[in-house]
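Hello again, I could really use a second opinion on something today. I've been staring at a protein lately and its backbone has me curious. Please have a think about how the structure follows from the sequence. I owe you a coffee for this, so here goes:
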Amino acid sequence: MTTSTRWTLVVLAVMAALVTALVASIDDSPSRTRGEPSAQVARTHRDADTPEALAGPRQRADLPPCPVAADNPGPKDLRGIIVECAADGANVDVARALAGRPVVLNLWAYWCAPCAEELPAMADYQRRIGTDIAVVTVHQDENEAAALLRLADLGVRLPTFQDGQRRIAAALGVPNVMPATVVLRADGSVAKILPQAFTSADEIAAAVKNALQ
């Protein structure tokens, strides 16, 4: 092997090592951890729904705070899902927020007419059942401002997750229909998925009781 050939091989080896190092450094970049969703996937609302734009609708809706995260890791299927609380825009660890007691998740969207009929019944059911069971609504459209204004018009004040990407529904295997209701046991397991509209608190009470038996 000539001296020229040896130097050529050395240069090629060095270049290959530099390329490998560059690829590794990009892959390990702190701007995005492997396995985490990109900003586009994790986005729950429109770019137009800035905190300033939502301040008025939030004031009108006057929603209660979302459930506080518990030490319990919560439902396995929902771990790692972070959404926004419609009341104040705070991030919510869904699994931990729903841990520790039975939960009725009501999945809806602002443009859904049956949802608008059902939401007041959900609020009525929550008033009747008290703190034994939590009712949490999940808005499944990126237009968060419209959701807040819809709740304000309906006079419905329930804790609400803003989930424009339907991550919660996908994790729980809920059919792509609205409204839909998911009953979770206190241990976080799914007791029943109810892809139907309810018209009264009595109907909801009966369905939830049957699911938790």
User: Anything to note?
Assistant: Residues 3-41 have pLDDT under 50 and may be disordered. Residues 44-212 form a domain with the Glutaredoxin fold (CATH 3.40.30.10). The CA atoms of residues 61 and 152 lie 4 Å apart.
